[in-house]
Every structure is written in structure tokens, then in C-alpha cells.
Amino acid sequence: MDFVSPGHDTHFALALLFISLVEVRRGRRLAIVDANTQRVISQLATPALSQVEWTGNRERLSLGTAEFSMAAEAVANPPAPTPALRKAMRSARKPRGG
Asked: pTM of the prediction?
């Protein structure tokens, strides 16, 4: 596909995102497919696509008074991060791909 100007790249990316969101709402997934074999090489996931997928799967959650109080307390006073969580966050902050 040839692009006339850099602005067209942005329009293409936005169009692809929009189409992807519409398809995810229909229950489909975005995938990279080998043109010769029609085999799925990889499925793509982005925060936006994942959010659309998760909001499509609603479940009722019932909490008793004790469970609700426990959840509210955990939100109000979260526990200190564990060493494993700290390590994971350090890894997440590192630049990728270079």
C-alpha cells in the first residue's frame, strides 16, 4: 500500500483501530495471517481492544456485607507492594526494543 503523505499513515492507523474495535464488539479477534497458508501467525491485543472484549463479558457479582467491607478496606488501605511486584514494575518501566 502506498501512502502519499505522513498524514495518510495516521488516517490508516485510526481506521484500522476503528475497524478493530467494531470487529471485537462482534466477538472477533484481530490476527496476523500468513497470506500463502492462511495460518494465523499471531493474535494482536491492545489495551483498547482488551477493554472492549472485557466489557462485552458481563457477570453479576454479589458481595455480602463482610466481603464488601473487606474489599472497601483493601481499596482504602492497600497492602505494601511485595518484592516480586516491585521487580515486575522495574521491568515494565524499562524501554523495550532497543
From this structure: 0.36
Q: Is 32 helix (H, G, I), strand (E, B) or coil?
A: strand
- Contacts for 13-18 with beta carbons within 8 Å, 24 or more apart? 17/46, 17/48
Residue 24: partners with Cβ closer than 8 Å, 6 or more residues away: 30, 49, 52, 53, 56
Cα–Cα–Cα angle for 49, 20, 39, nearest 5°?
A: 100
Q: Which residues pair with 32 in a beta bridge?
A: 42
pLDDT digits (tens, 9 = 90+) for 39-87: 988 887 777 777 777 777 777 888 899 999 999 999 999 989 999 999 9
The residue type found at 33 is V
Q: Please, which residues have CB within 8 angstroms of residue 93's CB and are 6 or more apart in sequence?
A: none
